[in-house]
Design goal:
Layout (H helix, E strand, L loop, with lengths): L2 H16 L1 H13 E8 L5 E8 L2 E2 L1 H10 L13 H13 L7 E5 L4 H10 L14 E5 L5 H11 L3 E5 L4 E5 L4 E2 L1
Parallel strand pairs: 1-4, 6-8
Antiparallel strand pairs: 1-2, 2-3, 4-5, 5-7, 6-7
């Protein structure tokens, strides 16, 4: 441990002793809120939204997230499965990446978009969970793609697809499986 690290830890400990209510309040806030930070690579839009606070879902945050995860080809917006937002939040926490921004490659897909992609791209399911608002394709800058996949697999909360050539991980809230 360097002298600088020792001093930082000492200052932090002294602050915790001198101001325990502030430390406790800030940790209580982080436990009483769930937020996501996303960047849509196709639209260039960024969003940091609280979707759950004090035991309840936050409509304003969910509406903003649903809009960001819309089908960027058609503009269609769908209610995204709340379990997907919880999965993304929990994945971020498991990675120790709170506050980092997921890059969204694909969220909701309209049936028209899914049909088009199925005809022109390999590996697109005929009835993709993207069409149900239950899937997203993501990456997290600063986190190795394999580590992102392995952490998602460890959570056992749905499907996990690994696409290293395309640089994304598919997550969904369907049955637990991987490819």
């Amino acid at each position: 441990m360097t002298r600088r690290d020792f001093l930082k830890k000492g200052v932090a400990a002294a602050a915790a002793i001198a101001f325990p209510n502030i430390i406790l309040a800030s940790s209580a806030i982080s436990r009483s809120q769930k937020r996501l930070s996303l960047y849509n690579i196709h639209t260039g839009e960024s969003l940091r939204a609280v979707f759950w606070a004090e035991g309840e879902y936050v409509d304003e945050g969910i509406t903003k997230l649903n809009h960001l995860l819309r089908d960027f080809r058609t503009g269609d917006v769908k209610q995204i499965d709340l379990d997907l937002y919880n999965l993304l939040h929990d994945l971020q926490s498991a990675l120790g990446a709170e506050g980092k921004t997921f890059h969204l490659i694909s969220g909701y897909r309209s049936p028209h978009t899914n049909e088009y992609l199925q005809k022109h791209t390999q590996g697109v399911a005929k009835h993709s969970l993207h069409m149900d608002g239950k899937a997203s394709d993501i990456r997290l800058p600063g986190v190795e793609l394999a580590h992102l996949r392995n952490t998602a697999l460890h959570l056992r909360r749905g499907g996990v697809g690994f696409y290293p050539k395309s640089n994304f991980v598919h997550l969904d809230t369907g049955r637990v499986r991987h490819w």
